[in-house]
Every structure is written in C-alpha cells, then in structure tokens.
Amino acid sequence: MGFRTGILFIFFLAIASGLSAAAAQQLYTPQKGSAERKAILNTLRPALEARLGKPVEFAVSFMNASRGWVFLGVSPQRPGGGKIRPADTVFAGQLEYMDGLNTLALLRFDYGRWNLIDHAIGPTDAFWQGDPLYQRIPQEILTLR
Q1: What is the pTM of this model?
Q2: Sign, CA torsion 11/113/28/80
Q3: Which residues are within 8 A (CB) of 133 and not within 5 positions of it... i.e. 6 or more apart?
C-alpha cells in the first residue's frame, strides 16, 4: 500500500466522522513564502539532513496547523527538485521496509519557536495511532486537506 493510499484511507475514516465547525475554523495551512511556513520547514530540516545528507528541500504534500501545533507531510528532495538517492542515505538497504523517503512530522510552537516533537521517514502505517501524545493534540490537524 502506498504512502498516500494508506494515509488517505485512515484519514477518510476520521473525516467521515465529521469535524466540528469550531475545529474546522481553527485549522489552517501556513501560506507559501510566509515566515511561519519557512520556520516550520527549517525546524524539520536538520533532522532530515542528518539522515539524508545536505542540502534538503521539501515538496509539501500537506501542512495542517491549529492551536500551536502543526502536522505535515513532505517529500524531501535536493535543491531544484533533484531526487535524493536512498543509497546515499542512512536508509541504504532499508527501503523495502519503507514508503520511500516521504516524511510525516509533528511540531509544536513553544518558547517563541517551532520545535520538532516527532517525525517518521518512510512510514508505511499511521504510526501515531495509539500513541497517547497524539490523543492530546488538536485532532483536526491529523487530516489531509
């Protein structure tokens, strides 16, 4: 099952249960080029560069923010859209257990800056399901829009 297929199925169930009007109003996507979006991606960047090598840019699949939290999905790439060769990363030889280098991340705005709380590179399932931390965050960010 592919990254988007599996994730979409899980989120379809969440969306089918319906979001409250208040939750939907609080959910937003930081705009392209905004200082907030740049700060979020720059917070994630060192964790991925440590595993994938430098430099890393992101193609953002989704970025859901609400009440000081953000949950995002990105595809890491080299500047200008260049492909990252898995053989040149710490994941060499592990790709059969991964859904590529697609990455999901959870960040929290605290102490005047964004902080990386959790992330997974190449997840093949909803790793956050059953994790008590994810039950305490705004549930509306755990949807694809």
Answers
A1: 0.82
A2: negative
A3: 106, 117, 118
